[in-house]
Amino acid sequence: MTTTVGRPSGQVHRVAIGSQTLDLDIVPVADEVAIALLMTIDRGVAFTAVAGADLAARLGPLRPEVVASAATLGIPVAIEVSRALGLDDYVILQKTPKIHLGDALAEPLSSITTAGAQSLLLDRARIGAVTGRRVVLVDDVIATGGSIAACLRLLRAAGAEVVGIGCLLTEAGAWRDALGPDAEMVVALGSIPIFGPAPDGTWVPRRGAT
After folding, report:
1. Which of 18, 120, 121, 172 could form a disulfide with 93 if both were Cys (CB 3.0 to 4.6 A apart)?
2. At the top level of CATH, which class does the domain 44-192 belong to?
């Protein structure tokens, strides 16, 4: 078993994501914890276009007026869901404090795949794009739920009416506790477990982690 944190273990996990099937690398994130890693920016245009259309088909009945997501891996999802819904605009909550975001609305967040503390930032020039509008929040993977919860707080602080949450994958089940009642809004194209070490040196899904 490869236990180098952040490096592929040599094992893969096969998962259905809507109408598509992928083999995802199993990557350790701690000594005895590994995840099946989906990187949307490494999957090419065709994969995200199909996945975005699959997700848009499920979110369309909510009659969204704008799609929102968080940088960086949610950006291609937001673009393709917006395109499939026939929308011409989307809003990205940013994580890099660029010069024009000095007075941005901010919300702290943490992520299982990102080290250190971060903040989500909503450009004040973009607040009008969500205020009083029906918003669907999309992302690549919902894992702990911390990032999506922070997105919800920030969007609601800006006056958005969040009507749905869409993702390509949910990971295990901890996100339900983090989101509370908002977990009922989540629409996912697939799900993955988290993994622990087996006696034979391989990674296997943790009991109760699916």
Report:
1. 120
2. alpha beta
